[in-house]
Amino acid sequence: MHKVSLSLLVLTVIAQFSCNQKETERHPTRPNIVFIMSDDHAYQAISAYDNRLIETPNIDRIAKMGILFTNASVTNSICAPSRATILTGKHSHINGKVDNHFPFDTTNITFPQLLHEAGYQTAMFGKLHFGNNPKGFDQFKILPGQGTYYNPDFITKDEGTVRIEGYVTDIITDMTLNWLENDRKEDQPFLLMYLHKAPHREWLMAERHFEDFTTRTFPEPPTLFDDYSGRGRPAREAEMNLLTDMHWAGDSKIYPEVMQELGIKGTSDWDEGAFDREVGRMNPTQRAKWDAAYSVVNEEFKKAYPSMSKEDQMKWRYQRYMQDYLGTIQSVDENVGRVLDYLEENGLMENTIIVYTSDQGFYLGEHGWYDKRFVYNESFKTPLLMAWPGKTPQGVRSDALVQNLDFAQTFLEAADLVAPTDMQGQSLMPFLTGKGDEWQRDAVYYHYYEYPSIHMVKRHYAIITKDYKLVHYYFDTDEWELIDRQNDPYELKNVYKDPAYAEIRATLHKQLDSLREKYGDNSQISQRYIDEYLDFLEEQGSYAGAKDTTLLKKIFQDRRKN
Ligand code: CA
């Protein structure tokens, strides 16, 4: 009995070995893939794009080795839907993950599953935010939901949920390096997804950066005091203004007792909850270091607040926001450096495709905002740096209209696999192999859904070319917006009704119609997602985090009447 199993085992091993050998012969150059993604990392906070706010020498190394995309974008600017588009190579209305509320439909086929089937070793560490575990991975350790910055819990493949003491960005990197060092198999190419939680709200930096970053000052963006007069209701009614919507405790780190002393009311009842959820997790040593830096912030604020005008408060909140947000980026950059060093020192650079991106961009005070969701540049665009050292020409900048929709087909082509015909992107391999000039796309499609919900950004879809954006806001409004990207780089003026743009408007409308047809989107599908979502909200008796509930009450009343 024993002998039989042993010989069976030997046969299996031999079969597997020869299979791997055949695979290697068939695809002699199948590269490894290291996919690095952070959460809400604005391109304005990467020095390869813009060095006014912070230096990120390690992330910039990828651009030096390869290509920096200045017009990379997402199809739907919000966490989980972006991740679903990346993994499936399909727009939100096709893969079903249109917002952060419903779990990802795991019957979708993802590119890691296909790579795994084709002989890739696969691992994922960090933030996924799907409401379920990833398929197609030999190994994963992921944060539950948003996860936490300090002493985070991880859902693991083999050991259930574990809590690890320390700072999340360092821990995710330790896991990644540990896997590369101890679990990576030399005879298989690998896909490694290294996914940071940082710099997601509420922006808690590592202890080592408290003192440095809480005392820095940063230049303000030109549109910090945008009054939204050049645009319609969507920009005016959004709830993501630094002055009026950001939380004093959870976001700006003002102690709840200081708020009380100064008579500041919480921006919402979430305020102190967010403070406790993050700062409350620290151990006594971490908390003591935190208090040493943030008690100074609080003391100074206590003195300054009584004489602050609204304008002063806005400026103060911007600085406070940037200190914490950029403090978290500092750790991301340091840790990306650790991984790049490892690849270099272990001879892995030559046959590895390295990607750095974010699940979308973010407002760093532009238009007076934080958060994302809108099709305006800071959240529609996302950082993208890619290199296949030895194959990719170095130091290239490209303004091609590439999207997160394109990753799946890129990696499948790199692995010499034929992508399923229903994937909707286009492989970026030409850029990696010096043939970027051959790549053609003149417009991309965008569709945002999560409304009514936290931050109250209305549902909209759009066509974006290098020169224009044509946007339709729908559901509880019906507004068109036309932005001239070349002449209005800050996107302050809707020229939809300007007669000078009549011709271009007509052309864009036609192009938008054909893009919607190409990607299979239409108003019936949009209505279906609205109905499902409102059913869900009514069932929950919830306004999904919106501050102004009068608008929502009206939506529900109107719905009952119809
Ligand atoms: Ca995100």
Give an overview of the whole structure.
- The chain is built from 18 helices and 14 strands.
- It is of the alpha/beta class and 562 residues long.
- It has three domains: 29-203 and 325-431, Alkaline Phosphatase, subunit A (3-Layer(aba) Sandwich); 212-322, no CATH class; 448-561, Arylsulfatase, C-terminal domain, CATH 3.30.1120.10.
- Strands 6-5-4-3-7-1-8-9-2-10 form a ten-stranded mixed sheet, with helices on both faces. Strands 11-12-13-14 form a four-stranded antiparallel sheet, covered by helices on one side.
- A hairpin with a 4-residue loop joins strand 5 (153-156) and strand 6 (161-163).
- Helix 5 (111-117) packs parallel to helix 14.
- The longest helix is centred in the middle third of the chain and has 36 residues, at 310-345.
- Residues 1-19 have low confidence and may be disordered.
- The protein binds calcium ion.
- Residues 39-40, 79, 359-360 line the site of calcium ion (CA).
